[in-house]
Amino acid sequence: MSALLPPLALALNVLALPAAASTPPPSLFPFDVDVLDSGLTLVTVPTGPTGTVAYYTLVKAGSRDEVEPGKSGYAHLFEHLMFRGTKAVPAAAYEKKMQALGADANAFTTDDFTLYVPTIPKESLAELIPLEADRFMHLDVAEVPYKDETGAVLGEFNKDAASPLWKMDEAMRELAFTKHTYGHTTIGYEKDVRAMPASHAYSTSFFARFYTPDDCVIFAVGDVEHGDVLARVKKEYAPWKGKRATTATAPEPEQSAPRVKALTWTGPTPPRMVVAYKVPAAQNLDDVAAMAVLTTLLFGEPSALYQRLVVKEQKLLSLAADPDDAMHKDPGLLPIAATLKPGASSFDEVGAAIQAALDAVAAKGPDAAEVAAARAHVKNALLLSMQTPGAIAINLAAYTARVGDVHALDRYVAALAKVTAEDLRRVAKAYFTAARRTTITLSPPMPDAKAGAKTGGK
After folding, report:
1. Contact status, residue 318 vs residue 273, Cβ threshold 8 Å
2. Is the pLDDT reported for residue 422 higher than 50?
3. N or C: which end of the chain has fewer CB within 10 A?
């Protein structure tokens, strides 16, 4: 960890200075970018002698790309299938080799991308690269193991569906999006997940459409040397061919009135609510940065609203807004979540308090000193979160996927440094209006609820 502190400290010092208008934003972690003839991109980020390497592969396909009716959940399914091996290295052999390399290998899927995240000792990188190249070029999942993996995904779906937070997310998406594929969760609709076992052929076509070199970015972060990594990647991935399919994602119509849905949960839970607002795509980094500062200022722990409702009046058990939740390739949602203390407040009261705080900023703008403090908090929290090669790689990958630029993280931090009180007033007025608001509430059952009600009922 200590090996990463000098560049972080340098980044913090650089960001404290105003950048000249004609100069590009400073790079938090200087890196090299190489684009192979196939379109495969390699980003090499040497962070010093950490002894470890994050060799992460970004696939710029997520649940957003699941546009065919009845075929939601396949981006997430491939997060599982990619560990099922190839003809050259079957699943059991792959697992054994990864263990021998000391690799910590996993993956995760989002609305906009899928990321494969093996972290290894520096000495194992030369052996890892051909293994990763083989599975991305030659994944081979027969029908029987395919069906086994779809069963595992159904089990994951059932586990998720037992959570009130997941039910709220599912309901929020379905209510807020009427056309766009953000309307379904990453794991997919239940009926689609249950139908997956019969769609082995479709899964093969999904792989061919999106697992292409021009749709992937490799992030080699940590104790690496650029020339060595580049030579090995060129050699091992040279046979990879293919072009990414175009995704015909339907644009979401403008929302013109507030939307509300109430859920009842039959298990033990405090009352919960999520108030979400339609916000622009991540490509608009100036607005993304302003919204991050706005939500920190209004809903972070030091905020007046948090201190009043959570600390002093104790009407809420929690109040939070994570601006990262709003970052999407297409226009998405910025959610504000509250957990109510039973009997201490109402959904209407809390919703009105959230909207009033936003309306006050839209009307007159916030105090400049408070904006400066919130701006510094957002920047420093982001920088200090990147203390490992893996954390650096994840942030670089997420911004690359959502903005479409490997330099997007640097551009975002530069945008944060310029956020003003007027920017907060502008985005509050433009995006955080009642007409753009969708609210989901979740309540425990009434005392007279029927004993036989199903868990997670709507």
Report:
1. no
2. yes
3. N
